[in-house]
Design goal:
alpha/beta; UDP-N-acetylmuramoyl-L-alanine:D-glutamate ligase; 334 residues; globular
């Protein structure tokens, strides 16, 4: 377990303030429709939800940017939305949070990904997804490359946030990673199943256990299995480190130098795991920008994931609460 001197921990948190971090990936809107259930439909045995409240939130890569904003960083968001109501809602959310949106492309004929969750009597009744996935829009990819090139010179780090919605193509992945490496800027990745092994030469590759098993094609259960899987991914991707998130088992950091660390979960009671992966990649990257080692950054990100899993819904990590939580858990020497 990593132990921090108080001054060291506070220095990391102070240093990542105002760091500019490019987030490129699939942008979404999360819609919540909440109400009461008093009866079943006469048309089918399903509950009728009388909607009393609706709300809209950052989703996908936009939620990563939102987490960075709450950590005190300056997120530079690159992605694609549609010329539609959901796209307008997302741009308004960016405006309200004073988050830059110049990197966001508004594309005619490309709907904004909208996930609608219907909640009745505090129970999740259904989720409705509205999206269109395709990886072959050369015009949009060219625009994203141009915007990335315009921002990379001022960035302190890059996050690739892949939700398999079509933004992160092989061509764009290679362009972003190669350009960031030319500028000696760290690249962290939150992957999904498509193009999983295309993220070569990055700084930290952060899959979850299910994605790791799917990619490697064999069971990954014990700590030893996780270490073996991490070394396989290091070999395939030529990354500096692999951070495998393992749900209730915490996370495991396997570094290129051969060092492995298993970090137990810090969640006291799990209320909702939604958005935990977004929290991990944003906090990890922010800590790295603050001068944290990979072990220190992974430990801080683990605490952040524990905090957000204790709350219902997709919520951003709060910098001050995270710092105080780490201090309260006896990792600090005076």
């Amino acid at each position: 377990m990593v132990r921090f001197e108080r001054v060291r921990l506070e220095d990391i948190f102070n240093t990542f303030k105002n760091k500019k971090i490019i987030v490129i990936g699939d942008l979404m809107v999360d819609e919540y429709l909440m109400g009461k259930v008093n009866r079943l439909s006469p048309e089918a045995p399903v509950p009728i939800v009388e909607i009393a409240e609706e709300s809209y939130h950052f989703g996908g890569a936009a939620n990563v940017s939102y987490n960075l904003k709450h950590l005190g960083c300056v997120p530079i968001t690159l992605g694609v939305i549609g010329n539609d109501r959901a796209g307008d809602i997302l741009l308004e959310l960016f405006r309200k949070q004073a988050m830059p949106s110049e990197g966001i492309i508004v594309a005619d004929g490309q709907p904004t990904t909208l996930k609608t969750r219907i909640i009745g009597e505090h129970q999740h009744i259904a989720r409705v997804d509205r999206e269109r996935i395709h990886y072959d829009n050369a015009h949009i990819i060219r625009q994203l490359k141009e915007r990335f090139d315009a921002f990379i010179g001022q960035a302190d780090a890059v996050i690739l946030e892949d939700y398999n919605k079509g933004v992160l193509t092989r061509e764009l992945i290679r362009h972003v990673v190669n350009k960031a490496n030319q500028y000696s800027i760290p690249v962290t990745v939150d992957p999904k199943f498509v193009n999983f092994l295309e993220y070569k030469n990055v700084t930290v590759f952060k899959p979850n256990l299910k994605e790791t098993v799917h990619a490697l094609g064999h069971p990954v259960e014990s700590d030893a299995d996780v270490e073996q899987a991490g070394h396989e991914l290091l070999e395939k991707l030529n990354a500096q480190a692999i951070l495998i998130t393992r749900g209730s088992a915490g996370m495991s950091l396997i570094e290129k130098d051969g060092d492995s660390n298993h970090i137990p979960t810090r969640t006291r009671h799990v209320a909702d795991v939604s958005g935990a992966g977004d929290t991990v990649i944003s906090t990890l990257t922010a800590a790295m920008c603050g001068g944290a080692s990979l072990k220190e950054a992974a430990t801080i990100a683990n605490f952040a994931a524990g905090l957000v899993c204790e709350e219902v819904g997709i919520v951003p990590i709060k910098k001050d609460a995270l710092l105080e939580t780490i201090k309260e858990n006896y990792l600090i020497h005076a």
